[in-house]
Amino acid sequence: MDGLDAGPGFDELFGVPPVVFAEAPGRINLLGEHTDYNGGLALPSPLGLWTRVELRPMPGGQVRAFSTLAGGPVEGALDEPRRRGDWLDYVLGAALVLRKAGHRVGGFAVRIASEVPPGSGLSSSASLLVALLRALRTAYGLPLSDLELAERAQQAEVEFVGAPVGLMDHLVISLGRPGEALLLDLGARRFEAVPLPPGGEMAVLDSGLRHHHADGASYAARRAECERAAALLGVPCLGVLGEGDLPRLSALPPELARRARHVITEDERVLAAVRALRAGHWSALGALLVQGHVSLRDDFAVSLPEIDLLVEMACAEADVLGARLCGGGFGGAVVVATKAGQARQVAEQVVGRYRQSTGRPGAVLWPPGG
Ligand code: GLA
User: Fold this and answer.
1) What whole-number distance in Å separates Cα of residue 114 and Cα of residue 124?
2) Which of 159, 193, 227 is the last residue of a domain?
């Protein structure tokens, strides 16, 4: 893992000490992929990889930022903001959405340290935005609830960075607690904690293939297809449909029918996964992960051959209960449910085989090595 202490310290960079420290985790998603922007259900959980932010308000409207992953310091102006197409957009975006909401936020210096690998499907961007917004909330004493903070984080990503993402990542990172999944009903705006029971463990394997939703036409294309399917079916969003509506999909062009079928069946899988966790049935959860992957691969078409191979290799292990692509797709990570106490060992074995067979720089992202 990249060290959180890598590179120069805040004082060294800016000549003054920081006044605020804030952090936010990454996340995994157990089930419920590409459902959030459809008003459906998702079941993510915070992951113990962190983005840490040290910040100090500065006179004027300039932002100076350093990142252990991307370097710097780089500068941007809050009064004449311009989208640059790089990581500084997240930093400026966080401050600008607060200003837009009427909060008084001025210039600042910020040092960002992250161990959430970008483009890996673990939501490094939402982690960064929530950490930044937490730091700005403290630095400027803003009356911002954790829910509003999540909404602002999404707004920054959609409006300023230009990635048309849903709200799942920001919600779980802002509201979730370690050791618990959060059942999100994005249509009803209801959130419920679902503790992860003993008897199983999650591992996260990096495929070594990166995605970038801000410039990836593919994520936006899937979102547009879902909106078109909903419009043709005469519903406000696909999340209002249930299994009883599956026969209606035959009225859609075949590709759109497959996209809609993924969303409808994925919502059902989320509910089944909640039942499995509440009953402590990790093997039932594992089977649902596998079904979820098949649906992402065949109906939603967001997987890649290497990711399919990684899932297949994981599932061939005796101690693995199930695996699937995690996050938006087109690269990124695979989540794996294993028997208790086996996650790290199994993950290392699978990644070793994957590297050998594909030549890709696969890696174990979770759990951390001893
Ligand atoms: C990305 C987005 C989320 C969600 C997932 C797919 O992580 O940021 O809003 O749409 O993809 O489930």
Assistant:
1) 8
2) 193
State the CATH number of the domain containing residue 344: 3.30.70.890
Give alpha helix (H) positions in the chain.
10-14, 88-100, 124-140, 146-155, 168-175, 217-233, 254-279, 282-294, 305-315, 343-358
> Which CATH number does the domain housing residue 75 bear?
3.30.230.10
- In the listed set 193, 212, 227, which residue is the last one of a domain according to the structure? 193
Cα–ligand 1 centroid distance for 166 (angstroms): 6
Identify which of 30, 33, 36 to mutate to test ligand 1's pocket (most ligand atoms within 8 A of the CB). 36
187 and 292, same domain (yes or no): no
Write the DSSP string, 183-220: EEETTTTEEEEEEPPTTEEEEEEE-S----TTT-HHHH
| Arithmetic mean of pLDDT, 62-81 | 96
Domain that holds residue 337: 199-366
Residue 36 pLDDT exceeds 80: yes
Give the closest residue (by CA) to ligand 1 atom 8: 165
In this prediction, residue 2 carries a pLDDT of 45
Name the pLDDT band for 119 (thresholds 50, 70, 90). confident
Overall pTM surpassing 0.85 (yes/no): yes
pLDDT digits (tens, 9 = 90+) for 9-24: 999 999 999 999 999 9
Residue 1, pLDDT above cutoff 60:
no
